[in-house]
Amino acid sequence: MSFTLLAVQILNGLQLGVILFLVAAGLTLVFGVMDFVNLAHGVQYMLGAYLTAVAVAATGHFGLGLAAGLVGSLALGFAFEVLLFRHLTRRDHLEQVLATFAVILIVTDLVRMIFGPAPLPLRLPELFTGSIRMMPGLAYPIWRLVVIGAGLAVAFLLWVLITRTRTGMLLRAGSTHPEMVSALGVDIDRVFLFVFAFGAMLAGFAGAMAGPILSIEPAMGDNVLILAFVVIVIGGIGAVRGALVASLIVGLVDTLGRAFATDLLRLVVDRSAAAQAGPAIASMAIYVFMAAVLIFKPTGLFTGERAWTRTR
């Protein structure tokens, strides 16, 4: 195992972790503030990628296309909340799960009907294509570095928003004492509306950033949704800082496990056994880690602390 290969896989893990954070941050805000289980969050991730790809193709400019994709994701978040999810907010979690699962099936089939099952390309500007030499023997794709930087910038802006602004104060108060906030004259339903739409925009941004790396196709949100829920369980429901830390941990564990599990097993078992067991162990690693967290700290790593937001 060379240092260069290890460095590349660490960067890949950070890039995956940042994508997961962008998805999980919106999901944990919706869950922590609204107490709403939104299985359709992966659909919003997928729609953000499609909207951006279509807008970039129509405008011929990546920046304009990305801005249009974010605005479209925000608008769809408003529409979903007003037309459907608002009526489910005060229902039990089972009804929320069933309704949002139906949204997954309907929207995925609609996208497949409109765009077809083939992957949709997302063209990057010349500035972000190619690789940059980070050290002797290590050249890393520019766009993946952009993804890491953008995700960390969003994390910082979220920290400022939640801890340093009046909006953040309302979010924290609404997540713990929504009835008291309503009694003070704040329209809590409007707060929930903006939280949901903002979470949808974050998911759409994640889809747009992942689009040039992964395939933009109708089912692209399924796997990332599962990983996002793993992140929320590990970090703590409603804890945005927990979502950041857990996302980076999950990204690194998953990436490094898939890259090196087989080689590490060869140190203790024969090559054929390592080749069979390595991929299976790598795919289970994050779930084993999640199980360990649930055993020793069932509420997650950051729940109960001042972790930007807290659950009710």
Describe this structure in words.
It contains eleven helices and two strands, in the order ααααββααααααα. The protein is an all-alpha fold and 312 residues long. The protein has one domain (3-296). A two-stranded antiparallel sheet has the order 1-2. Helix 5 (142-164) crosses helix 6 (166-176), helix 9 (220-235) crosses helix 10 and helix 9 (220-235) packs across helix 11. The longest helix is centred in the first third of the chain and has 32 residues, at 3-34. GO terms for molecular function: transmembrane transporter activity. This is Branched-chain amino acid ABC transporter permease. It is found in: Cell membrane.
Structure in a nutshell:
The protein has a two-stranded antiparallel ribbon with strand order 1-2.
Brief descriptors of the model:
BCAA_transport_permease; transmembrane transporter activity; mainly alpha; transmembrane; transport
List the helices and strands and how they pair.
Layout: H1 3-34, H2 41-59, H3 62-83, H4 93-115, E1 131-135, E2 138-141, H5 142-164, H6 166-176, H7 178-183, H8 188-210, H9 220-235, H10 240-265, H11 271-296
Antiparallel strand pairs: 1-2
Helix pairs in contact: 1-5, 1-8, 1-9, 1-10, 2-3, 2-8, 2-9, 3-8, 5-6, 9-10, 9-11, 10-11
